[in-house]
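in:
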C-alpha cells in the first residue's frame, strides 16, 4: 500500500480500480455528430465559389479549337436528343455542343472556317454515297431512266390463252413483227410501218393460230401452230403455204422453236413433234411428258432442246444423240417446278445456262446448268417472286435477265385449297422486270400493261423488247438494253513490223 501511495495513488485506494467507460454513440446521434463536424470544418475555413460559377451561368465559354473529329451524326429519324439546361451548360463548357455532333445535315457557314475538319464532315456522307459507274448496256441506263414504252400497237383478237405465243419478232436481217389476231396473222415492217395481212385460217379445219415463230435462217418463213393441231410454214413475201403438217390426234399446239430448217413443236398430249421444211412428213416425235408441252426452246448452239409441261416438269434433250439428258447416267433425273412452266430461255453468252419460270402457285425463276446436273437436278439460282412468270429473255449484251409477269398473290393464301390465285398488289404485277446475274437482284421493274403480260420477244439487235397483253389487246415496244460502243483498236508497233 505504501508502495502504491508512493507511486501516486490516492490513500483511499481499496485495491480495485473502476475503469472509466468510453463514451459511445448510437445510430441516432450519427447525423448530429457528422453535422457538427461539417459545421466546424466549414466555419474554420471559408471559400468563395462566386468567381468560378459565374462564367458558367452567365457567360458561356467558347469552345476551344480542336483537331479531332468523331464523325458521329444523328440518324434521320431522330430530330434531337432530350437534354436538360444543366446538361447543355456542362456540354457547352467542354466543347461538346457545337457544329460537329448531334446533327444529321451540316450546312457550310463562315463561322466554321476556324475548324479544319468541317469541310470533310460536310462532304463525308456524299463520299460514301457516290454513284457507281453504270454500264451503258445495262437496263438501268435505258429502261430504268425512261420507264416508258417507245411504241404501242393494237392487237384486236389476241388469244386469251395465257400459254399461247401470239407474238414474234424476226431476228435476222429484217425488222418485222408478226401477231396472231382471231383467225388471222398479220406482220408489220417496223422500219416502214407497213402492215401486211399474211393469212386467214379456216375455222372448221384449222382452228385459230395459237403459236407463231419466225425462222432465224430463213427470215421470210413464219411457222404457225393452230388450236386444231396443224402446223404450217408460210412465205411472208409470196403469202403462200410452203409446208403443212396435221397432227393425227388434232391436239392444240404449244410452244415452237426453230433450228435451221427444223421446227420443234410441243403438243397437248405431251409429245414433241419435229418437222423439216424439206420434208412432207414429220421427221420425228418424242413422248415423255404426261401433260401438254407448254414450252420448247433450242439452245443458242443448237445442241440441246429444253421442253416444259403443265406439271412443271422440264426436260433437256441432246439433239446429237436424240435422247433426253436426264436419262443418261451423268445427267440424272428431271428438273421440276411445283406449277406449270411456260417460260424457257437459254443464255446466249453461256450456252449451258437454262432459265425457267413458273406460274401459280410456284412463281419462281430457276437457273439450271446442264454441266452440273446431278442425279437429282438442283438449280444453281432460285428467286421466289410470288407472281406468274410468262416469259424470260436473256440479254445478249450484259449479264441480265428479263422476265414478264401476270398476277401476283399473297403467299399465305397458298395454305387454303384455292384453285385460282387471289390477286394481291405487288410491284411485279403485270410488269416487265430485269434481274442481274448471278445474284438475280432486281434492277428495274416497270408496270407494262393494265393486265397480265402474255408474252414477250426480243428484237434483232437484242436491245428492244415487245410485250403483248390480251386484256388490253395491245402491244408495246420497250428500250431495255444498249449496245457497247466498240472502240477502234489502237495501232501497235507489232502491227507494222514482223519477225522474219
Amino acid at each position: 500500500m505504501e508502495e502504491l501511495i508512493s507511486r501516486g495513488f490516492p490513500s483511499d485506494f481499496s485495491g480495485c480500480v473502476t475503469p472509466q467507460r468510453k463514451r459511445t454513440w448510437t445510430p441516432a446521434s450519427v447525423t448530429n455528430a457528422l453535422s457538427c463536424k461539417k459545421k466546424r470544418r466549414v466555419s474554420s475555413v471559408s471559400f468563395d465559389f462566386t468567381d468560378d460559377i459565374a462564367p458558367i451561368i452567365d457567360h458561356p465559354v467558347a469552345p476551344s479549337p480542336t483537331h479531332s473529329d468523331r464523325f458521329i451524326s444523328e440518324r434521320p429519324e431522330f430530330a434531337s436528343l432530350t437534354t436538360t439546361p444543366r446538361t447543355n451548360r456542362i456540354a457547352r463548357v467542354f466543347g461538346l455542343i457545337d457544329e460537329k455532333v448531334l446533327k444529321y445535315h451540316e450546312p457550310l457557314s463562315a463561322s466554321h472556317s476556324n475548324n479544319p475538319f468541317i469541310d470533310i464532315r460536310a462532304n463525308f456522307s456524299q463520299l460514301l454515297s457516290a454513284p457507281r459507274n453504270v454500264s451503258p448496256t445495262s437496263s438501268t441506263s435505258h429502261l430504268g431512266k425512261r420507264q416508258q414504252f417507245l411504241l404501242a400497237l393494237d392487237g384486236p383478237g389476241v388469244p386469251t390463252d395465257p400459254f399461247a405465243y401470239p407474238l414474234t419478232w424476226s431476228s435476222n436481217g429484217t425488222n418485222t413483227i408478226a401477231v396472231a389476231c382471231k383467225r388471222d396473222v398479220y406482220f408489220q415492217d417496223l422500219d416502214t410501218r407497213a402492215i401486211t395481212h399474211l393469212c386467214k385460217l379456216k375455222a372448221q379445219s384449222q382452228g385459230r393460230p395459237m403459236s407463231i415463230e419466225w425462222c432465224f435462217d430463213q427470215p421470210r418463213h413464219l411457222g404457225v401452230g393452230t388450236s386444231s393441231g396443224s402446223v404450217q410454214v408460210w412465205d411472208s413475201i409470196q403469202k403462200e403455204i410452203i409446208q403443212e403438217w396435221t397432227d393425227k390426234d388434232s391436239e392444240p399446239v404449244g410452244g415452237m422453236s426453230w433450228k435451221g430448217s427444223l421446227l420443234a413443236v410441243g403438243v397437248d398430249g405431251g409429245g414433241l413433234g419435229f418437222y423439216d421444211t424439206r420434208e412432207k412428213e414429220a421427221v420425228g416425235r418424242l413422248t415423255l411428258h404426261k401433260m401438254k408441252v407448254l414450252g420448247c426452246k433450242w439452245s443458242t448452239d443448237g445442241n440441246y432442246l429444253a421442253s416444259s409441261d403443265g406439271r412443271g416438269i422440264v426436260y433437256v434433250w441432246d439433239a446429237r444423240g436424240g435422247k433426253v439428258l436426264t436419262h443418261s447416267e451423268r445427267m440424272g433425273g428431271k428438273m421440276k417446278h411445283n406449277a406449270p412452266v411456260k417460260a424457257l430461255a437459254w443464255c446466249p453468252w453461256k450456252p449451258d445456262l437454262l432459265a425457267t419460270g413458273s406460274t401459280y402457285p410456284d412463281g419462281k425463276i430457276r437457273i439450271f446448268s446442264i454441266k452440273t446436273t446431278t442425279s437429282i437436278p438442283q438449280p444453281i439460282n432460285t428467286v421466289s417472286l410470288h407472281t406468274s412468270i410468262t416469259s424470260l429473255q436473256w440479254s445478249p449484251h450484259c449479264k441480265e435477265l428479263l422476265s414478264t409477269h401476270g398476277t401476283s398473290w399473297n403467299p399465305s393464301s397458298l395454305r387454303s385449297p384455292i384453285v385460282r390465285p387471289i390477286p394481291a398488289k405487288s410491284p411485279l404485277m403485270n410488269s416487265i422486270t430485269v434481274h442481274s446475274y448471278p445474284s438475280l437482284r432486281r434492277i428495274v421493274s416497270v408496270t407494262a400493261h393494265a393486265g397480265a403480260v402474255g408474252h414477250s420477244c426480243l428484237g434483232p439487235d437484242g436491245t428492244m423488247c415487245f410485250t403483248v397483253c390480251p386484256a388490253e389487246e395491245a402491244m408495246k415496244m420497250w428500250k431495255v438494253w444498249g449496245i457497247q460502243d466498240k472502240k477502234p483498236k489502237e495501232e501497235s508497233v507489232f502491227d507494222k513490223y514482223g519477225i522474219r
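note: The radius of gyration is 42 Å.
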